[in-house]
Each structure stands twice: as structure tokens, then as C-alpha cells.
Prior knowledge:
This protein is an alpha/beta fold.
Amino acid sequence: MDFKIKKATPEKFKTDALILPVFEDTTLGTSAATLSATTKKALENALAQGDIKGKAGEVQILTAVTESAAKRIVLMGLGKATEQTESGLRKALAATASALKSTAAKDAALALDDIQVGERDAHWVARQAVELFEAAAYTFNAFKSKDNHKLVSLKKVTLLTTTDPKAVEQGAVIGKAIANGMNYARDLGNTPPNVCNPSYLAQEARKLSRGCPTLTTKILDEKQMAELGMNSLLSVGNGSDTPSKLIIMEYKGGPKSQPPHVLVGKGITFDTGGISLKPAPDMDAMKWDMCGAASVFGTMQAVVEMKLPMNVVGVVAAAENMPSGKATRPGDIVTTMSGQTVEILNTDAEGRLVLCDALTYVERFKPASVVDIATLTGAIIVALGPFASGMMSNDEAVVADLQAAADYTQDKVWRLPLWDEYQALLDSPFADIGNIGNAGPKAGSITAACFLSRFTKAYPWAHLDVAGSAFNGGANKGATGRPVPLLTEYLLRQVKS
Ligand code: BES
Ligand code: MN
Ligand code: ZN
């Protein structure tokens, strides 16, 4: 989808669909006021009929509006004009973009002038609009036979503003890079696990760096990982016929000597649980156990697209967790790359086993910060549902930046503690640490993060548990592309400082 910016009021703008904000209190806004008397009358009549009350998320599409340059006028409810909220605007944009999918409109124009959410500027509004329109138009048809495609007609959206076209333009450019990154992450997540295996992810990384001099890709195979002592990572893929990979993508947009920010993604391309086998219902959802990795790919792509003047390293720990005669057993003890030994009590707690060695590996970059992203625990879904990613960290500055980025993008996070009391739950009688907490499922997300924290002492670090936010189960099944907006904004903020 293309986004254009035009400094204009909407009355003369020729479009298949003109999107006009309407409000709960004052009904029509200033953009509507510029329209012809007949058109305005038609809008007032529609509002008087009461099909739309102006609440955030309400949408009404009017056709056959005479004397209008627009073929359709889409009324987009935004709530009370003076009380517009981030969540209200996001709901409205998503509902509008989604309503347009059931029309044949090929292009649309969105009147921005009446949108004012607190102190948020035009740049922010443009970013939200681009992200939400792109998200609504997303389809994943690669595995549908030809005649079975859902097609979206909308190809172009013009953002109409009279105030600050420059800010809108810049917001749209960044929004587009983020949306592209999200779509990429969603595609990787949704690709079935018989196709998207560790080698497939390695190929994707090679593809990303092809023809891109600022990005170099390195793939470590099992033999190279064994030489480095990554026995914990390797133990996860033992039962699989498809070999594990460590994927390293180095983006050099800043001065050579500048320490990079590092992203580390959990790339379990399918998680059966291994010998600690998961129950059958909904096991297909475990193809999304590489969504942390997918968000690293999506963010790296956005960084390349925006040509950020900084250094970023993306690392993906890719493996498939399968049961077999060669699989790791509960009770096995492995020595990690760090030298610490781990008693594997539950082979289904495999994410931390691949991440710990990747987190030791990245010490070599002397990172400015490390953020790992993982669909790590079911417990985080119990705690936060789909709305926020869990965040745990050893560094207040990283926490502050992630929180600010989450607030700005509305790709939300919520922090959980890593207190010593929780650390003690990882004690093992036979090894340095157990791979699950010995309080059973209690504080499962925190004990998982405590495990990771044993491997991240050398740098400022945060862990994002995205098991609830990176994909949806149920009726609206699919990868969400989160937390690409959060990670990209986090990196953008490191450029400025
Ligand atoms: N990939 C799962 C976590 C998960 C569950 C992600 C549901 C998305 C939806 C992870 O590898 C796992 O199995 N975690 C276990 C840990 C337990 C064995 C300590 C869990 O959450 O049950
Ligand atoms: Mn698991
Ligand atoms: Zn898993």
C-alpha cells in the first residue's frame, strides 16, 4: 500500500473514499466544514439518523453523496473531540481500514486535521495511521491455491493535512518501514513449520543482506556451535532431523567503534515440548514459537529501510524441539557456553536453553544494550493477556527507554521483577541451575527470566516475553508483527542520544 501526503482540505480531493472524523459531542469536525453545502447536509442527515453516534470505533460508509469529489464518504467515530485517546484513535483507524476492505475502493484519503490526541503531534498520528491501515490490509495467501485468495482493493491512502505536511511525511516514512517490518515478521510467523525451519530462517537472513552493503549475515552450523561450547542450544535440536542454526545479522550504519545494540530472538520453529511432550489441542500454535526471531528479522529490515545511523546486531537462535530417540531427556545435564551447568528438568522449557548460549555469544560485540525477544512462557499470557509484552531487566536506563518506546508506539510492555527470592527457585541439587523453577508453575515468567539473567551479567539487558503479544490464537489466528514497533522505536531513540 502506498501513502501520499497532501497539504489540502478535502472538498476538492478526488478519491474512492474520503475518511472524515466525526465526534460524539460536536458531531462534524472542521474538515467536514469545508465540504459543499449539499454534501454537508447529507452528512448531517446521516448523523441525525443515528446509525453512528461518533463513538471511537464506529464507522459508517456513505455512498451516492451528491456534489462530492469523493465516491464514498467514510464517517470515522473518534469519541469526544476534546477527549481523544491513543486507544480510541487506534480502534477507529483499525475499524475504518477494516470496513474499507468490504468495499471496492482502490484509494482513500484520510482527513487528519481534526485528529488531536493529547500532546501527540502530526508525526505520531501519521505513523499510527500507516501502521494500522497496513495491518488491516495484511493477508497471508502464500499457501492458498489460486482461486481462494482474499484480495484487498485498497492500494493508496492520501493523508490530508493543512498544518504540518513535513511532520506527516516523516511519520508516514517511519510508519511504512515499521509496517513493512511487521508484515515481514507476520509472514515468517505464519509460514508453516514444515517450511519455516532453522535452515529457512538462515536463508531469509542471507536474503536480507543480499545487495545490502551495510548488512552482513553469518550462520553458525551445529559443528561450529559445538566448537564454541553451545551445548545448551544444541541440546534442544537433538531430537530433530532439521539442524539448529545460530543466525547473526550485523548492521553497520554508525561509526565502526560505536558499540552496537543487540537483539536476540527465540527461533523455535516448532515446539512440541520434546520428551516433556505438550498436549495435542492447539499444538499447531507452536509454529509461532519463532515469533521473537521474526521480530528481529522485521526490525532489522526496518533499520535497513530507514538507514539508521547506528550499529545493530540481530541474532536468532533457531532450533526445532522434537521428541525422538536422540532427544534430550528430563534429567540430562548440559554445560552451557558460559561454563555454567544446567539440569534440564523439563524439555519444554527449551526457549531459555537456546537463548542462554546466544546471550553468551553476543558478549563478543561489547554491546551498548541487549534485548532478547521470546515467546518464552504460557504464564505471561495468564498474567498480561494479549495486550502487553512482559519485560524484565537488569538495567534501569534500558527499562526507561523501552517503556518510553512502548508508550509512544502503543506496543505495550509491563515490567516484572527479578528479585533474589525468585532467583533461588532455580537451585538444582545436581547442576549449577535447573531449567525450571522448583516452585512449579508459580511465577513462571519470572523464573524463566531469572534463568536468562544468569547469562547477561556483562551488559545492560532486557528480556521481552511476547508469548501473549506476538500471535493470536482462536478465531483471529495469526502472527501480529509485534513487538517490531516497540523494538524499532527503541532503536530510533538510541540514535538521538
Ligand atoms: N513456547 C512455550 C511458551 C508458550 C506457551 C508460548 C503458549 C506461546 C503460547 C515455551 O517453550 C514453553 O513451553 N514454556 C513452558 C515452560 C514450563 C515448562 C516451565 C510453559 O510456559 O508452560
Ligand atoms: Mn516449550
Ligand atoms: Zn517454546
